[in-house]
Amino acid sequence: MNHFSYNQLLRFKNVCFDKVNEFADNNLYDENKRCIDERLLIIGSGLNGDMIVLDLDNLQIGYVFHDELWENDSISSREILICMNCSFGEFYNNSLTIDGYPVDGFQAERYLGLVK
């Protein structure tokens, strides 16, 4: 993973981690800046474009709903964060080994039992 993570995306099943060299740019785009301002580092994206983030306060991975973030300037990124309750490594492993593991925020809500 670390050999290629600097110059190409790491795609696994239906999600991907961004190129490490693009983390700064991706986190400082006007539409995305609220995430890093709230200590959520964007590290990739799900199938529908929802952002995969690393919560810098607890080192847990989650999804942020991209459409809500981009369309509603008054919403906090933490209000639309679905925490997957796992580390970076656990998220990667779960994505590869658990059938039906969430690939976006909506699936994450259902997977975690947050919606019916």
Your description of this structure?
The longest helix is centred in the C-terminal third of the chain and has 10 residues, at about 90-95. The chain has helices at about 25-30, 35, 65-70, 90-95, 105-110, and strands at about 10, 15, 40-45, 50-55, 60-65, 80-85. A hairpin with a 2-residue loop joins strand 1 (about 10) and strand 2. It is of the alpha+beta class and about 120 residues long. It has 5 helices and 6 strands; from the N terminus they run E-E-H-H-E-E-E-H-E-H-H. The mean pLDDT is about 90. It is globular. A 6-stranded antiparallel sheet has the order 1-2-3-4-5-6.
Features:
116 residues, single chain, globular
| N/C terminus separation | 36 Å
What's the total helix number?
5
Helix content: 25-40%
How much is the radius of gyration in Å? 13 Å
Order of helices and strands: EEHHEEEHEHH
Q: Can you give the mean pLDDT? A: 91
Low-confidence stretches: none
Largest sheet: 6 strands, antiparallel
Quick one: how many beta strands? 6
**Strand order in the largest sheet:** 1-2-3-4-5-6
What fraction of residues sit in β-strands?
Answer: 15-25%
Specify the overall morphology.
globular
Helix/strand/pairing category: alpha+beta
Write a concise synopsis of the structure shown.
With 116 residues, the chain is an alpha+beta fold. It has helices at residues 23-28, 33-37, 66-71, 88-97, 105-111; strands at residues 10-12, 15-17, 40-45, 51-55, 61-64, 81-83.
Please give the structural blueprint.
Blueprint: E1 10-12, E2 15-17, H1 23-28, H2 33-37, E3 40-45, E4 51-55, E5 61-64, H3 66-71, E6 81-83, H4 88-97, H5 105-111
Antiparallel strand pairs: 1-2, 2-3, 3-4, 4-5, 5-6
